[in-house]
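Anyone up for a design puzzle?
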């Protein structure tokens, strides 16, 4: 749903996913 707000949300979502992935690897 948040993706509807625009590309900025997509960028934030990508960063959030990267943080989650980093957390799993650490």
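Challenge accepted. My sequence:
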């Amino acid at each position: 749903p948040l993706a509807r707000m625009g590309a900025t949300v997509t960028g934030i979502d990508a960063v959030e996913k990267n943080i989650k992935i980093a957390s799993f690897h650490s």
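A detail worth pointing out: The mean pLDDT is 76.
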